[in-house]
Amino acid sequence: MKKSIERIIPRPARPGMVGDGFRVFNMIPGAGISQQRISPFLMLDFNAEFDFGPSERVRGVDVHPHKGFETVTIAYQGSVAHHDSTGNSGIIGPGDVQWMTAGAGILHKEYHEQEFSKKGGPFEMVQLWVNLPKKHKSVAPHYQPITAGEMGKVELPAEAGLVNVIAGTFGGVKGPAFTYTPVNLMDIKLNRDGAVDIPIPASHNTALLVIRGEVSVNGQSAPEHSFVLFANQGEEISLQAKSAAVLLLLSGEPIDEPIVSYGPFVMNTKQEIMEAIEDFQAGKFGCLE
Q1: Residue 27: which of 91, 37, 19 has the closest Cα?
Q2: SS3 assignment for 90-107
Q3: Is the pTM of this model over 0.85?
Q4: CA-CA distance, 108 to 89, in Å (whole number)?
Q5: Per-residue pLDDT tens digits for 267-284
Q6: Which of 123, 157, 248, 258 would be a feasible disulfide site paired with 78, CB 3.0-4.6 Å?
Q7: Which of 206, 205, 240 is CA-nearest to residue 222?
């Protein structure tokens, strides 16, 4: 049975800026999609393709804290560098994914990689926030740097395209990302007229971001930059590309716990949010310049 489509949501009319380096369309939460409705996903910012132009001054987001969840950065075009208060640093290039578990608390900084910044060029990214269940919100911060070559790859028959499995399983191939609750995250690239059927548990909260191209989803047209929200019924999604398409499919088992968000902190109660703020102010997340 096909997974029912609840809504096909167009891209917001105007982007917002995160720092001075990320020009994003906020898809979650938004358009009436609450964090509880799309749990375990908390936020999705889509930096649609944009040329920032060459710059000697590196653009980005200055030092900021996170606690109680994970950030997943997926690079399509351009390169992002990062470093944090635990001493980790790295560069995320096209096809790479950085899966950061903030857990008990971390300070983080993200910015255009220096050489990319000097040259300029197309920049296209997605950042997804994934909630942690209460029992894991205080796990020590850590990273999963996943390169393009480490992805689980499923070549589709009849030269239809490719599925990069970041998390979860498709076609007998398991993605490299470890997740604290059941999550599927797939980077799907379809050639024109290419088609694929993807099984997803009926209970999962599920959505599809059309990054490039136009695609038929269970027979309904979803234009470029649209966001498809599925109902929690049915167990298969049929995709057929009307033009060469790049898609991000996300699904996850809902975390049946209260969600209390305050900026970069996501906990279960207001008291825990107050404690997170106090810990941050007391320097318990470490130091970063």
Answers
A1: 37
A2: EEECCCCEEEEECCCCEE
A3: yes
A4: 10
A5: 999 999 999 999 999 999
A6: 123
A7: 240
